[in-house]
């Protein structure tokens, strides 16, 4: 087996943490000796042991660790956080070589983990499958590098390009399976946002009720505090925040975020401060267009359902790179990445 194949396995393990580790990155670790895996693990839960700790613990005969190679998808940490530094763990067990996919952008680590390993005489190689690693941890890297959450736009449109009828009487466009898939996606992200009209006309819950997984924190916009107090978004089942330019009201089940002027930049800045690394925006078209105009989006997931409306509210236009196109029980799912 090649270095690349072991790293592929470490990335595969890392991915199992999706939805459970944020705001930490997904990290996998495979420890190899004489071309055999002697232990592997991943960062399973926020606050829990790091990937390296789980991989080392999985090794039955710890003496095998001496002169082994560790494949880690992220630079081993050098800081005392919720756990002691992973770099020290690898040094203590006299690992011979450490192969790393990505450097850790977290200023608490940022190269210092690598330095610790090298200072202890361990061979370190960096950058193997680094593009795959960056895609896997795109939320984590975006949060550190762009100082804003990773933004996913999600909408469903008709074949003739409408996201709603003119009277908004068109809550469901995509099929049941597509909608379950959206619940899965919600479970993978930290937060979800909708605009005023979507909140008003769809009265969405924005939960993961058709999927086993955690609910994202909910955000909606109500500039002038005109929305009905009985909406699902105010049912208290999930922490929910309302962006408003109005007066702060004392209301059960809702936290207000007052902004002088609600803009995509201001929204993302507030959300970033809450250590939220990813945001899925689910409508409506006005909100999509304001984020698209400013280039403040990273990924768009678009369902095209086999219906036509003839007229209505137009779907947003994006110019991005098409990453994938597939059929989802009769709906077409297109995934785009911003350039
Ligand atoms: C690793 N291996 O599996 C992960 C790392 O609060 P803590 O102690 O869990 O530390 C979180 C930081 O540690 C996180 O921001 C990132 O820099 C690094 N994550 N490092 O060596 C791992 N998950
Ligand atoms: Zn660590």
Task: Write a structural description.
The chain has helices at 3-15, 51-58, 86-92, 112-119, 130-136, 138-145, 176-188, 196-202, 264-273, 285-293, and strands at residues 28-33, 36-42, 69-74, 97-102, 123-126, 150-158, 162-164, 191-194, 217-221, 240-244, 255-258, 278-281, 299-305, 313-314, 320-328, 331-338. Helix 3 packs parallel to helix 4. The chain is an alpha/beta fold and 339 residues long. The model has no long low-confidence stretch (mean pLDDT 94). It is built from 10 helices and 16 strands. It is elongated, with a radius of gyration of 23 Å. The strands form 3 sheets. The protein has a 9-stranded mixed sheet with strand order 11-10-9-8-12-6-13-16-15. Strand 1 (28-33) and strand 2 form a beta hairpin. Bound molecules: ligand AOF and zinc ion. Zinc ion binds at residues 50, 52, 76-77, 83, 86. It catalyses: 2,5-diamino-6-hydroxy-4-(5-phosphoribosylamino)-pyrimidine + H2O + H(+) = 5-amino-6-(5-phospho-D-ribosylamino)uracil + NH4(+); 5-amino-6-(5-phospho-D-ribitylamino)uracil + NADP(+) = 5-amino-6-(5-phospho-D-ribosylamino)uracil + NADPH + H(+). Its EC number is 3.5.4.26, 1.1.1.193. Keywords: Hydrolase, Metal-binding, Multifunctional enzyme, NADP, Oxidoreductase, Riboflavin biosynthesis, Zinc.
């Amino acid at each position: 087996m090649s270095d690349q194949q072991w790293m592929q396995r470490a990335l595969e393990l890392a991915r199992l943490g999706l939805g459970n580790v944020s705001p930490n990155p997904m990290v996998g670790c495979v420890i190899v000796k004489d071309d055999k895996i002697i232990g592997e693990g991943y960062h399973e839960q926020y606050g829990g042991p790091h990937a390296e700790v789980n991989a080392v613990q999985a090794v039955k005969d710890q003496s095998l660790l001496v002169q082994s190679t560790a494949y880690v998808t992220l630079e081993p940490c050098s800081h005392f956080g919720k756990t002691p530094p992973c770099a020290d763990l690898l040094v203590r067990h006299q690992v011979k070589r450490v192969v790393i996919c990505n450097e850790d952008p977290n200023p608490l680590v940022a190269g210092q983990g690598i330095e610790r390993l090298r200072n202890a005489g361990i061979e370190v190689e960096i950058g193997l499958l680094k593009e795959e690693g960056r895609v896997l941890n795109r939320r984590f890297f975006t949060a550190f590098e762009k100082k804003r959450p990773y933004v996913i736009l999600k909408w469903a449109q008709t074949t003739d390009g409408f996201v709603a009828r003119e009277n908004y009487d068109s809550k469901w466009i995509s099929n049941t399976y597509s909608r379950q898939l959206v619940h899965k996606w919600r479970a993978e992200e930290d937060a979800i946002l909708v605009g005023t009209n979507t909140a008003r006309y769809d009265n969405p819950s924005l939960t993961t009720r058709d999927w086993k997984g955690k609910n994202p924190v909910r955000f909606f916009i109500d500039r002038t505090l005109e929305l009905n107090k009985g909406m699902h978004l105010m049912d208290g089942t999930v922490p929910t925040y309302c962006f408003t330019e109005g007066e702060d009201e004392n209301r059960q089940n809702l936290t207000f975020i007052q902004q002088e002027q609600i803009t995509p930049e201001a929204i993302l800045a507030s959300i970033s401060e809450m250590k939220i690394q990813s945001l899925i925006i689910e409508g409506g078209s006005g909100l999509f267009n304001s984020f698209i105009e400013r280039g403040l989006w990273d990924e768009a997931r678009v369902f095209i359902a086999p219906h036509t409306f003839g007229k209505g509210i137009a779907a947003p236009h994006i110019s991005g790179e098409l990453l994938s196109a597939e059929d989802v029980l009769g709906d077409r799912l297109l995934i785009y990445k911003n350039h």
